[in-house]
Amino acid sequence: MGFPDNFLWGGATAANQCEGGYNQGGRGLANVDVIPTGPDRRAVITGKRKMLNFDDEYFYPAKDAIDMYTHFKEDIALFAEMGFKTYRLSIAWSRIFPNGDEEVPNEEGLQFYQDIFQECHKFNIEPLVTITHFDCPIHLIKEYGGWRNRKMIGFYEKLCRTLFTRYQGLVKYWLTFNEINMILHAPFLGAGLTFEHGENEEQIKYQAAHHELVASAIATKIAHEIDPQNQVGCMLAAASYYPYSCNPKDVWESKQSDRGNYFFIDVQSRGVYPPYARKMLAKKGIKIEQTKEDLEIIKAHTVDFISFSYYASRVAASEDSNVQKTEGNLFPTIKNPYLESSEWGWQIDPLGLRITMNDLYDRYQKPLFIVENGLGAVDIPDENGIVNDDYRIAYLRAHIKAMKDAIDEDGVVLLGYTSWGCIDLVSAGTGEMKKRYGYIYVDRDNEGRGTLERGRKKSFYWYKQVIASNGEKLSCNEL
């Protein structure tokens, strides 16, 4: 059987990690622009340290990133050379509405993305567009407090209506919020939230998440009204939790951790707050302000498919367990002694992808779309400027094999696969350039130095072979 004939092979990026051009084309300042590299990065990401403008003592990698703002035609041509069927990218909100609350959108920003989508279609590449990939205009944070404020729903609705109308016929696959569950772990990055001393942070995060859930349902409604061909998905940072041991306490902890991960997707996919979530909120003393109309629109407008990122599996343990921690996607997890780890401590687990796919498909019975998966590594070009990234090929090959097994053996319905960072870009977690994911090398270092010249890695030719064979040729032998 293998992958279906219409399977959407491609790659993924995010505006704030690749575009640059933060002050060009009428763009406004956003939260993602003012997150620095260095030891204070995590404090800013989590809203513990308020940073709403640039400070000369810090380096801000997103300001210029890899300058896809001016290189996008070159980059899309390279994606086409690999044979991409789809390209996942995101909209910089402040490029469309610089402050976020204007009545009229910024035409330069609208034209920029129109040019990108038209360039994609020139090569028969289907755009897969994330409406908000951690972007929130700074003005909306300063004036309204970010997503803690219910008025954000209206601003987001205007953004969506503008996008769906302008790009009708150019885009039909949409994602409402990137990794919506990250609001709990990186609230400034995920929702523009900062906290004052003594505030109930949990209350604020869950209230902000409710506003995003309502906004997502409204976006789904508008998308279907404007163009019935539109397909709208939710997106989570996914990875099933293993119990650290067969101790029932560890098994229960893993189930609780999974529920915490799936909470928002349960709402977006099923249309209701699940009973376990209501009990959990009550136990925490959290009371979400919601209207009857909120619940009605959430119920009536669920997503068409489930998209997710997967990099590594996770482990959960009870308080009784003596465990060692390791790094994960923006937050640490328990080290699994059965797995190897990447240079950044992320555990490599291809079977975990198959397990996660089965868990998600069993839970929701909706098509899946893997929109992020990849290996962050230090790539060193040889004397000829070539990166022989066999380690990346090995990682991706094993994960694509796991995807194929989930389709063939388990009956999971999978729409497509866009590996993360198809071109080298700024790391969301660390802000580094040396943590590379791409098939395309970009000459830029952690301090922003370099020519920005693009170069094909060994994995570029390997992935071209994978796509051309629709996932049947996974070895490197023919390269």
From TrEMBL:
SUPFAM superfamilies: (Trans)glycosidases. InterPro entries: GH, GH_1_N_CS, Glyco_hydro_1, Glyco_hydro_1_AS. The active site is at residue 372. Pfam families: Glyco_hydro_1. Coiled coil: none annotated. Keywords: Glycosidase, Hydrolase. GO terms for molecular function: beta-glucosidase activity. GO terms for cellular component: cytosol. GO terms for biological process: carbohydrate catabolic process. Belongs to the glycosyl hydrolase 1 family. This is 6-phospho-beta-glucosidase. It comes from Candidatus Enterococcus testudinis.
